[in-house]
């Protein structure tokens, strides 16, 4: 992750915007690489998790705002660093979201996108890809936009179309202990996804069958987080 330190070097008291922040986990992750006197804004279309996010990010100078990634509620050139992690596949118009990231970025600032990818994954990582596709399918069943995992080339095209400036890309494999991830995802499938299963109506049996196949695949092949692509670009000063 040395490259992240280099990307963010030299930004003093930066204003950081993290889009689709959820519970602010990516802000905590970023704070290892960004100057300690940064101010963070976490934006999400849902505000129900903000109380939890505030608790989780205690110690960071952070505020949370409700808003849509495709129509950001900020003036042009408001932030030094604009990020979005693990969320592009939740957004109906991804190019529009990237162009909004670019619009609110100041000249000289950094736009960074992080997203899981589905190509070139080994058997244990395919457990993660399949898990993601399974939960995306259940979300779509209840009317939430949630597409399957992008490939690296799809992400690069979306990014380049949104920012219209030459990009540099970096490809990083997360180093999370696979055993811990395996137990967590099996627990989700066997227990914590129950509220979702109960919303599947007459397709419940079909989803339970898919769940059992996924559990069997994970038991046989293990579970490892799939590779994530980091894409970033500095806006010309
Ligand atoms: C998988 S979570 C990722 C959260 C966080 N970025 C992380 O890496 O932990 C996806 C988030 O995208 C948010 N989201 C979905 N569509 C959005 C939109 N159009 N605008 C803003 N946030 C959105 C969801 O509410 C959810 O919090």
List its traits.
237 residues, Rossmann fold, binds S-adenosylmethionine
In short:
Helices cover 41% and strands 20% of the residues. With 237 residues, the protein is of the alpha/beta class. Residues 20-22, 25-26, 44-46, 68-70, 85-87, 90-91 line the site of S-adenosylmethionine (SAM).
Description:
This protein is an alpha/beta fold. The chain has a single domain (2-234), classed as 3-Layer(aba) Sandwich (Rossmann fold), CATH 3.40.50. The chain is 41% helix and 20% strand. The protein has 9 helices and 7 strands, in the order H-E-H-E-H-E-E-H-E-H-H-E-H-H-H-E. A 7-stranded mixed β-sheet has the order 3-2-1-4-5-7-6, sandwiched between helices. Helix 3 links the parallel strand 2 and strand 3 (62-66). The model has no long low-confidence stretch (mean pLDDT 93). S-adenosylmethionine is lined by residues 20-22, 25-26, 44-46, 68-70, 85-87, 90-91.
Largest sheet: 7 strands, mixed
- The dominant shape is globular
| Rg for CA atoms | 18 Å
CATH class: Alpha Beta
By DSSP (H or I, 4+ residues per run), the number of helices equals 9
């Amino acid at each position: 992750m040395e490259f992240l330190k280099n990307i963010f070097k030299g930004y003093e008291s930066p204003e950081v915007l993290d889009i689709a922040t959820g519970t602010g986990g990516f802000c905590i992750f970023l704070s290892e690489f960004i100057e300690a006197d940064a101010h963070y804004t976490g934006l999400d279309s849902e505000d129900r998790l903000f109380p939890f996010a505030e608790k989780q990010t205690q110690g960071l100078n952070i505020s949370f705002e409700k808003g849509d990634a495709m129509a950001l509620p900020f003036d042009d050139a408001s932030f030094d660093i604009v990020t979005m992690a693990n969320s592009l596949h939740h957004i109906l118009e991804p190019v529009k979201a990237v162009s909004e990231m670019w619009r609110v970025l100041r000249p000289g600032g950094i736009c960074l996108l992080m997203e899981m990818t589905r190509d070139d994954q080994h058997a244990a990582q395919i457990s993660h890809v399949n898990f993601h596709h399974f939960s995306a399918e259940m979300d779509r069943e209840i009317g939430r936009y949630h597409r399957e995992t992008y490939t690296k080339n799809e992400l690069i095209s979306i990014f380049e179309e949104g920012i219209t400036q030459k990009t540099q890309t970096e490809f990083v494999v997360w180093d999370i202990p696979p055993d811990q991830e395996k137990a967590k995802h099996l627990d989700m499938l066997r227990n914590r996804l129950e509220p979702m299963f109960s919303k599947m109506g007459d397709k419940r049996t079909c989803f339970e069958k898919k769940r059992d196949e996924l559990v069997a695949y994970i038991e046989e092949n293990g579970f490892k987080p799939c590779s994530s692509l980091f894409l970033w670009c500095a806006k010309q000063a």
